[in-house]
Amino acid sequence: MRITRLYHPEKLACGETIYLDKSASSHLVRVLRTKTGSPLVLFNGDGFNYQATTLDDNTKKTAVHIESRVAAENESSLSITLIQGLSRQDRMETTIQKSVELGVSKIIPVICQRSNTRLNADKQQKKLQHWHKVIISACEQSGRCVIPEITEINSLDNIMPLLSSTASKFMLDPDAANSLKDTAEHPAAVEILIGPEGGFSDEERDFLKDRGFNDIRFGPRILRTETAGPAVISAAQTLWGDF
Prior knowledge:
alpha/beta, CATH 2.40.240.20, Alpha/beta knot, five-stranded mixed beta sheet, 12 strands
């Protein structure tokens, strides 16, 4: 029997009784039909799974007893940052969800010259809140206990302060001569840049190459933007990570 995993954003400690919020309680009792005394796994982003048992079936404030904790130990040995050109809502959501399942450490949404989406400050914050929920859901599903970071939405020319000076940097370009497997080194950290639906402009390519990004191709076919990120992450995990 598969045990339900839920994110609880507060501190968890063995032997304590905590109360789930209204959303989690309703999902647990109304949707999943969880009964009193059912086993449950909670996580809060500290790297541990907390084994627990429900004490009631209150749909607004379910009481849960924390019994033990176990280190998850399923984070990737390869630190992966995905820099994703902003795309339409469903595509961006798919990219974030699958990247989290595949082990990404950090996601940086960027606005490129050919991005079809333009958001004001208020809409940007709403998007970030929604994407955070997508990340949490992907962690619940995939068994991750460390929550990947997602940064504010940035313009492409402002991302350098968010990047590491030691990570290997790659940008996907269907016209590039080399692929990931041509990389001689065995990096401990990679930063992967994926363009929006329309790809990068020549000006953006030159800007990125001047800042240490290596252009790579991913086979003879052109991938959709929502496919590209998860595909390259999978390849990097196979070459240097935990696949």
